[in-house]
Amino acid sequence: MNMINFFIEVIIIIATLLIYIGTVKVHKKMDNPFTLPILISTVVIILLLSLFRISYETYMTGGGWISELLGPAVVALAYPLYKERHLLKKLVIPIISGTLIGAFVGVTSGILLAKWAGFESEVIYTISSKSVTTPVSMAITESVGGITSLAAVFVMIAGIFGGVLSEYIFRLSKINHYVGKGIGLGSASHAIGTATALENSDIEGSISSIAMIISAVVVSIITPILINLL
Predict the structure, then answer these.
(1) What is the mean pLDDT of residues 179-198?
(2) pTM of the model
(3) Smallest Cα–Cα separation from 127: which of 106, 149, 110?
(4) Helix H segments across the chain?
(5) In terms of Cα–Cα distance, which of 136, 144, 138 is closest to 187?
């Protein structure tokens, strides 16, 4: 039985990697925000799981191993930070101030829009931390009484929408500078937004990495306070 489980895990890992590699090739040929690999691969995997009636729990026996690589991937973001360290030192004040504002707006907008839409308290608590990376969001959600499993979904939606729509939002808002783009992507769309920023340039990706880290800390502190105030 253990050998069967092992083969299932291997097949799931290989299939996931092949799907992602395929979507990366599609994205390179069709350079469009809507062909973002994480968006297309997520849709394809969901369709395959539904088609073959494979449960999420079964998929995660192999998918969980891929999730474990998230930690090393985040650590790898330190490399572009090191490369651009001299320029980043000059931008400390705008990066920190911009990220603080972004974190406040992210939490406040989530809470107010959820209340305006008439959602229950649990959903409001859950959506409040949508703009930070999954482990942090789930920890915040648990501490304020939200639904942790739903928090992961909101984080995914925020990340994917940020990666897909950021180009159009920046164009509409006339944001052309790499500092503004990096802060916006890192504070609103966490790791997925940072990956998008890195595609544009190392400096934009570095700023997004810093914004993502600062935002996670700030959102952890202000979320319980804003929930009580709003």
Answers:
(1) 88
(2) 0.81
(3) 110
(4) 2-29, 37-51, 56-67, 70-76, 78-83, 85-90, 92-116, 121-127, 134-144, 148-173, 178-200, 202-229
(5) 136
